[in-house]
Write a structure and sequence with these properties.
By secondary structure, the chain is α/β, with parallel strands linked by helices. It has two domains: 5-216 and 333-414, 3-Layer(aba) Sandwich (Aminopeptidase), CATH 3.40.630.10; 218-329, Alpha-Beta Plaits, CATH 3.30.70.360. It has helices at residues 11-22, 39-54, 98-114, 140-145, 151-156, 165-171, 202-206, 244-262, 297-318, 337-349, 365-368, 395-414, and strands at 58-61, 67-71, 79-85, 122-127, 189-197, 210-216, 218-227, 265-275, 285-294, 321-329, 333-334, 354-359, 374-379. Helix 3 packs across helix 12, helix 8 (244-262) packs antiparallel against helix 9 (297-318) and helix 10 (337-349) crosses helix 12 (395-414).
Length: 416
Amino acid sequence: MTERITDRVNGERMAADLAALAEMTRREQPGYTRLAYSEEDRQARVWLREKMAAAGLTVRLDAAANVIGRRAGESEASVLVVGSHIDTVPNGGRFDGIAGVVAGLEIARVLHEAGRRLRHPLEVIAFTNEEPNAFGISTVGSRAMAGKLTAARARELRDPGGRTLAEAVDFLGGDAVRLGEARRSRGAIAHYLELHIEQGPVLDRERIPVGVVTGIAAPTRLRVRVEGRPDHAGTTPMGMRKDALAGAAEIVLALERIATDVGDSVGTAGRLVNQPNHANVVPGHVEMMVEFRSIFPERIAAVRARLLEAMQEIARRRGLEISWEFMMEERPLQIPPETVELAAAVCEELEIAFRKLPSGASHDANHIAEIAPVGMLFAPSVGGRSHCPEEFTDTADIAAGTRALLGLLLRLDARP
């Protein structure tokens, strides 16, 4: 039987890459913590640039600090891109995003070792800061590439320590003053592809190695502030209190109830800061991040309307001031049907079992889809676990997904 180039994908080599990146974590914390803009993030980027260069890629950072490895094509046609991210959530796993970057790196190696030059140039990209951060937004690198993050906005956004997003981007080697230069025009990218772990239980439960993604949910994220009145906890009667934390707790429960009632949507509250945060003082101020998402725009709109109404009602009833600022309002993404069907055909050709399914998590692909057609494949997450130390995907499944991704890339490259 004639060897196909997709058969050259080396799972053991990919496992070694995943293990090496897993070492670049905060040692004092459980799980894997490589937050965007941290020293661990910078260290991992140095490692990745060296590996990209060894795979025959010409490596650079753009103004948003996206790590970009490029392989020249036979022509100067628009570029084919394979990408994902290497930052993690706190105490997270070692596969989310990282498996996709390692897949892109492995594809570059396979092409380099085979001496295979595509018709299109190929870029492997590790996007800056996909995960949520203390600045209140996420998907920073892909957002900038899609022209949705300006230098002025990067200077405005600050973390609790006062550092601006612009300063954080510069720390990684970007150039936030020229952030607009990271933007790609529509048509500059012929197609964007991403391999990701499912982060859900479907593929693992059904023992299927590859998922062909049909659509991607999008988050709406708010910073909510609840202003009450700090008073003595022992002398202030219950009926005379303006308890900001109690009001915030009602918002959290309202979000849970609304997302459940609307259906096909999820809602989460986090990063809750309570002040003055003493047992003998009625809470006077609470700030928190609130997020909800769905793959259906009408569900997002329904949750949004009902949540804002609920917060206004809680404020009136409790005598509180509740304000909010929308940090993100993204649109769900439907993967082009022709890309879905082409990915399915590749899996059939390579004799890799697959099923079609949507993604409940948001990805860099959501932004790149505004300037280029996108496609996404999933590898199974054992037990559906993700964003936790127990996150695990078998190397054989990552390798299968990488073979399918390479096959899809070759099909797209061959199209006129």
